[in-house]
Amino acid sequence: MHARHLRARLKGWGGVGAMAAACALAVVFALAVTCTGSVASQTGAQPAGHRTAKALTVDAARAADDCEAPEKQTLPPSRADGPAITAIKNRPGEKRKLVVGVDQNSFRWGYRDPNGGESGRLEGFDIDLVHRIAEDILGDPDAVQFKAIPTDQRIPAIQDGRVDLVVRTMTINCSRLKDVAFSAPYFKTGQQVLAPKSSPIEGYDETLAHRKVCTAKGSTAYAKLEEDRGSGDLPASTDISTTVPNQLDCLVRLQLGEVDAVVNDGALAASQAAQDPTVELKGEAFTTEYYGVAMKKDADDLVRRVNQILVDFRQDTATGWQASYTKWLSATLDDDPSASRPPAPEYLRRS
User: What is the dihedral of CA 63, 69, 73, 79, to 10 degrees?
Assistant: First the structure.
């Protein structure tokens, strides 16, 4: 996908004015979405095949320590219920919901449209996937309790039991595999530079020298910039000190002139460019990354079930991956989703 083709397809929201409304709504709904309490403890009898899944988890932990292809470090799909899924299904009454960490500020991924739409309802590609998972596990696509979490709280929210899983444009990487388990990939992207159209910045290169770059805390973008500046692949004078809780905050900083550029996943950066026609993607993607659903390290049965749901989601031509891409992302990325569709999944196998 070429940057000039992408820019030609971007559709704006009216720039800073629309963003101000979006940010105001984000504050209001962050209060509405936040809830108290932890996810119920995962208890129950071990199902058939549980020992095999546990052995695969040990393999996954070892793979995380010596990791070259993090997107392949996941368990084979299965429809079997185990302790994690049983705990979700056994929640009483109105609490019988899937608790999911999401974003509410990422245009067309997980967001609340300030220009319309159902009041208080989250929309987007990630949200479609959440409803699909809830329907499969609980028989009701709306049996979901959404929790809006900032970028740097995705892993703590899982580890602390505040959510069952996170579906929030979260890149699978080796470092994160030490803390959480991931599904197979459901989206392919890469890091890109976002800057004002009038900026002399040309991409991820020497034109970032003496420039201030914004990234989200806990993001792969910041880790990449820090690594490359240390190795000399990024100019030493590039200022990467500006980090914010959420990716959208970087766009606001850019609009206010507090930073010169933003580095973010290209899929998210394209959505931000669609929100403000005064900015654009600069240069091509300089990494290859995959989004996955994140869960607790020991939630083997949930990982395997989500992987089965993803198999079905990709194969469903009517209401699955392709339909969701067309609805939410084709306007900001490309009508041809081949660049964003991940390769056929590969899973851990016992030796």
Answer: -170
